Amino acid sequence: MIWIELVILLAAILIGARLKGIGLGVMGMLGMLIFVFGFHMKPADPPVDVMLIIVAIVTTAATLQAAGGLEYLVGVAEKVIRSNPSRITFIAPFTVYFLCLFAGTSHVVYSLLPIIADVAAKKRIRPERPLSVSVVASHVALTGSPMSAATAALAGIMAYNGAAIDIMKICIPSCLLGLLAGAIAVARKGKELNDDPVFREKMKDPAFRHWMEAPLEQIRGKGSARAKLAVVIFSITILLVVCCGAFPQMLPHFEPGKANFGVNADGSLKMNAVIAMITLAASGMMMLLTKTTPAAVAGAGLFNAMAVAVVAVFGVVWMSATFMQHNELALTHALGDIVKAHPWTFALAVFVMGMFMFSQAATTRAMMPLGVTLGLTHPALIAVFPAVNADFVLPGYPTLLAAIQFDRTGTTRIGKFVLNHSFMRPGLVVLTVAIALGFLLGTFFF
After folding, report:
1. N or C: which end of the chain has fewer CB within 10 A?
2. pTM
3. Rounded to whole angstroms, how far apart are CA atoms 68 and 87?
């Protein structure tokens, strides 16, 4: 029976991923309906904590965007990328990583992809190289960002004081070194641009040749005072979140009682609640001090993306959690001994689920509780955390498609066999190195 249920689970995720947008959530809910009414599965708790964290964090990022702060940050990143164009394969992914780490969302990479493609092409560097590893950088930045829902979700699952800081201590350096390995892996990938037959054919087009020969120009000007103030408030917000995670003894403590979204049973505040309060309060401060209207925030692109993310997480994670809960004994019996003896093998299971879910937060919420059930230690859970970034494997994620569209030279592409696309090599290298280093760093920090 478990195999039939697994097929239904994967089918709902695959069909939802093909539909894109809220399709993943509604197909997850269809699978949930089949599980409950067809297989009489008892519904698990819905992922309310992750959904609320997404609402809080993305609202803050959307306020930053509406105030002009996000555009200002992208302008700063653009200057860094253009400062040394001959080293763009190494500079671009690290610039993207730190911008997404700061913002807590990979969506900001869309503004940088055309810049990376333009700079690389005009320096006659194959754009596939910096574009592919930069897209991967925008994903892995979320596993360690204090402003990402995925990091907050894992910290909540591990549920001990200082969990968020431990995640950052291990995942940030391991992912940075993984990115370095990924950049090295693609530094000589493919033919040089001038030798690429597709590029040489495109150069016969006068309009394309004119674009290639046009000089590099600075696109963005200086940020306004309003935008800079928004960035300052956002920076203070991140600092406060990090401090609260690092020094939980500074937080209010209440009488022990029933646990809820805000407090644990022992009366201590949950980091999820702390993050939600700080980030939404920061949104209010940005609106007041930068005179950004709520209507402008609601109309921001990131705010609209939040609705899609919430629906997707609600449907697919609730369905997955119900499947895991119903088959907990069977899964523990089948995987328990293997995972206990070789904790890294759990990364493969997380990786496979991440391929289909297209959401780091959803994959974290669906799979990491299973890791706890299987007896994985906290260092092991953190080490395998980067595996949730497997959304590059199936080339349907928006960041991948955007990179392909922005590369006017045609070097960034999906291969004949679908999986042999431009992002596979850097993605596998980055995650493999990051996970291996995560286990190594865990022995030092724990």
Report:
1. N
2. 0.84
3. 29
